[in-house]
């Protein structure tokens, strides 16, 4: 906001502040302090078209946060040539196709898994008039949002998790924590519908020598703080999650390196150009060495042994080796429920590891078309 304040000092016309103006508290303070005269909402208005109204009503906590991911808006339009949308608002730009409506035949629904897909399915189902119970095996909601929100510049993901929890509380959602559901529990309860959204787990190949070494940790466990991370870190996997994980620790002052088997970073998945360029620039600025075209051979007492495409091996000394080479869907019990008279659906990462856009949209459309 300081740059807008400087511009306001230099000119005699109104200053409109734009770009990531999704925090109403920051906007209100800037207005009081005379740093800007008005605020332009672009991506935040896709996430929640009622942003101004909720602010005016004194209900800023109800604003659905824009997470700045660019997967639904800029990335779809500029990089993929697709119609604009929004990762967190499945109705955005499609309001005429998805007007609010109640279910013609309300159902008793069991949702298993309290990640973003499970929370969106529960929220949408209650609003549609269904009876819903959400089960989560841990003592908290959020699933993969917890690790995602710990990555640099991803604080809005944590905001999204908290927004869902507030919305579910306001809807009086029936949520059961610390309860791991089995297929027998589902058959015994016999709901009309069960929605399985049990997430995914980090890929930790047993074929890699030393994968169980004390220095080895998955990116999810590292980001959630389940295992301590030393001062010298090697991140194996140069996808978006791997690069963001590397920056997470580089910003803490740790010495970080990235190893990627492909010739280029973030090349096996769609990453919006703005996000990709930003991460590459940040890694260069913070002097994060990148070893592309190298694969991990072993994790040992010294660190990570890697091998280039021409067969040359070298050891990267490390206190911690963070594995970020992908996610694998967790088994969801779907097969055990076939033929029981219960409608069974899989959504989210347990169907196919993806991103927030996919999880939210799949959950919303499943309920909308039920």
Automatic annotation (TrEMBL):
Necessary cofactors: FMN
Span of the signal peptide: none
Taxonomy, superkingdom: Bacteria
GO MF annotations, alphabetized: oxidoreductase activity
Keyword annotations of the record: Flavoprotein, FMN, Oxidoreductase
SUPFAM superfamilies: FAD/NAD(P)-binding domain (SSF51905), FMN-linked oxidoreductases (SSF51395)
Domain (FAD/NAD(P)-binding) ranges: 108-335
InterPro entries registered for this protein in UniProt: Aldolase_TIM, FAD/NAD-bd_sf, FAD/NAD-binding_dom, NADH:flavin_oxidoreductase
Family classification: In the N-terminal section; belongs to the NADH:flavin oxidoreductase/NADH oxidase family.
UniProt protein name: FAD-dependent oxidoreductase
Organism annotation: Dysosmobacter welbionis
């Amino acid at each position: 906001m300081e740059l807008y304040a400087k511009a306001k000092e230099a000119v005699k016309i109104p200053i409109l502040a734009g770009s990531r103006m999704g925090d109403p508290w920051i906007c209100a303070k800037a207005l009081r302090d005379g740093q800007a005269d008005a605020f332009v909402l672009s991506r935040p208005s896709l996430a929640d078209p009622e942003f101004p109204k909720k602010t005016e009503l004194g209900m800023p906590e109800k604003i659905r946060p824009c997470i700045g991911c660019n997967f639904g808006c800029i990335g779809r339009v500029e990089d993929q040539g697709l119609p604009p949308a929004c990762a967190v608002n499945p109705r955005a730009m499609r309001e005429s196709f998805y007007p609010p409506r109640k279910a013609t035949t309300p159902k008793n629904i069991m949702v298993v898994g309290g990640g973003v897909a499970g929370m969106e399915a529960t929220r949408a189902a209650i609003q549609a008039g269904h009876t819903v119970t959400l089960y989560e095996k841990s003592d908290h909601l959020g699933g993969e949002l917890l690790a995602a929100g710990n990555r640099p510049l991803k604080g809005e993901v944590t905001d999204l998790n908290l927004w869902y929890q507030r919305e579910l509380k306001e809807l009086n959602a029936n949520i059961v924590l610390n309860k791991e559901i089995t297929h027998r529990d589902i058959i015994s309860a016999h709901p009309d519908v069960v929605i399985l959204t049990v997430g995914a787990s980090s890929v930790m190949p047993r074929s890699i020598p030393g994968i169980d070494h004390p220095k080895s940790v998955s990116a999810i466990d590292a980001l959630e703080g389940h295992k301590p991370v030393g001062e010298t870190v090697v991140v194996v996997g140069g996808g978006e999650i791997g690069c963001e994980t590397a920056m997470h620790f580089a910003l803490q002052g740790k010495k970080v390196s990235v190893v990627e088997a492909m010739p280029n970073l973030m090349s096996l998945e769609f990453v919006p150009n703005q996000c990709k360029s930003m991460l590459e620039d940040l890694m260069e600025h913070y002097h994060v060495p990148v070893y592309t075209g190298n694969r991990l051979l072993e994790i040992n007492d010294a660190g990570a042994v890697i091998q280039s495409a021409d067969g040359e091996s070298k050891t990267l000394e490390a206190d911690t080796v963070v594995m970020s080479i992908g996610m694998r869907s967790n088994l969801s019990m779907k097969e055990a429920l076939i033929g029981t008279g219960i409608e069974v659906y899989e959504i989210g990462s347990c169907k196919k590891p993806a991103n927030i856009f996919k999880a939210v949209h799949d959950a919303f459309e499943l309920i909308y078309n039920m």
